[in-house]
Amino acid sequence: MKERIRIAANILKNAKHVVAFTGAGISVESGIPPFRGIDGLWSNHDPQVLDLSYFYANPLESWTVIKEIFYDFFGKAKPNDAHKGIAFLEEAGIVKETITQNIDNLHQEAGSKIIHEFHGNSQQLICTSCSATYPAFEINLNKLPPLCDSCHSLLKPDFIFFGEGIPQEAYEASVKAAQNADVFLVVGTTGEVTPSCHIPILAKEKGAKIIEINPEESKFTNSITDIYLQKKASIIMNQLINLINIK
Ligand code: APR
Ligand code: ZN
Predict the structure, then answer these.
(1) Do residues 51 and 104 both lie within one domain?
(2) 113 and 59 inside one domain
(3) Catalytic residue among 83, 107, 116, 119
(4) Which terminal Cβ of the chain has fewer Cβ within 10 Å, N or C?
(5) CB proximity list for 219: less than 8 A, separation 6 or greater
(6) What is the CATH number of the domain that holds 133?
(7) Within this chain, do residues 94 and 70 fall inside the same structural domain, yes or no?
(8) In terms of DSSP bridges, do strands 209-213 and 227-229 run parallel, antiparallel, or are they unpaired?
(9) How many separate domains does the chain show?
(10) If you measure from the C-alpha of residue 189 to the centroid of ligand 1, how many angstroms do you get, rounded to a whole number?
(11) Rounded to the nearest whole angstrom, what is the distance from the C-alpha of residue 130 to the centroid of ligand 1?
């Protein structure tokens, strides 16, 4: 593994356009459980609460689970060394942009600037009829389901539910990133969810080298990954930063 990390550090150091592509795994060491795998959220909660039609038909039930999963402790999670490592590599001019499937805002809090949020962000709620938006922390989530101040319709988190389209801007920016990248640093994702999983695949088709960080194999590992670093994200990121040795 030492040799592989050294090669990966070299590739990153000499790359022209590195794109970080992250999933729930990068936030596990910040205390946010992943969706799948051991202790995954979907083994304790039914993902239908994030199905748009179910949400509209059962707003109270869905919001009760959504609050528990995404709001009760999200505010307490802090960026870990993996988020900070990506922000550091952006600062050093190595990582040019970050595409994240996560909605936890931890890349922003770690200091990354160019972030494409493929699934939106949990920090604001949006009205399902007049599209008014509210910072999530301003809404009293002890009164569920939350309603719009101006038209009293149902509010929903402004992240993507199953059955919802990907935010146009994030989608286009991610496709462009996949076309421009010469290296994709894929961190903490099963690669099971479409259409997000097609972004690293597109990057590979366009000739990018794929460096993957994940303690477990993913759908990418034996298909598009060129260098597989099989450890927790914060451990690998710290080792990569030391080896790249940016002054
Ligand atoms: N460091 C790196 N990777 C980790 C760590 C860690 N410390 N801990 C777990 N992982 C890996 C797991 O091995 C797994 O491959 O993170 C991945 C988490 O997988 P998922 O929970 O499926 O997360 P993700 O791939 O981001 O899911 C994609 O599914 O439910 C939707 O919208 C949701 O954005 C999410 C999408
Ligand atoms: Zn409204």
Answers:
(1) no
(2) no
(3) 119
(4) C
(5) 190, 191, 192, 197
(6) 3.30.1600.10
(7) no
(8) parallel
(9) 2
(10) 4
(11) 33
CATH code assigned at 21? 3.40.50.1220
The neighbour count for residue 37, using CB atoms within 10 Å, is: 15
Ligand 2 center to 63 CA (angstroms): 17
Q: How far apart are CA 215 and CA 35, in angstroms?
A: 15
Nearest CA to ligand 1 atom 34: 101
C-alpha distances in angstroms, 62 versus 104, 146, 152? 19, 11, 18
Please tell me whether residues 112 and 175 are part of one structural domain: yes
Residues 64 and 171 in one domain: no
**C-beta of residue 21 within 8 angstroms of C-beta of residue 246:** no
pLDDT per residue, tens digit, the chain (247 aa), is 889 999 999 999 999 999 999 999 999 999 999 999 888 988 888 999 999 999 999 999 999 999 998 998 766 899 999 999 999 999 999 999 999 999 999 999 999 999 999 999 999 999 999 999 999 999 999 999 999 999 999 999 999 999 899 999 999 999 999 999 999 999 999 999 999 999 999 999 999 999 999 999 999 999 999 999 999 999 999 999 999 976 5
Those residues whose C-beta lies under 8 Å from the C-beta of residue 174, and which sit 6 or more positions away, are 99, 116, 118, 199
Residues 1-36 have pLDDT tens digits of 889 999 999 999 999 999 999 999 999 999 999 999
Residues at Cβ < 5 Å from ligand 2 ion = 127, 130, 132, 148, 151, 153
- In which domain, by residue range, is 16 found? 2-32+79-119+166-244
**Statement to judge: residues 110 and 136 lie in one domain:** no
Q: Are residues 13 and 90 in the same domain?
A: yes
Ligand 1 probe mutation, 214, 229, 238, most atoms within 8 A of CB: 214
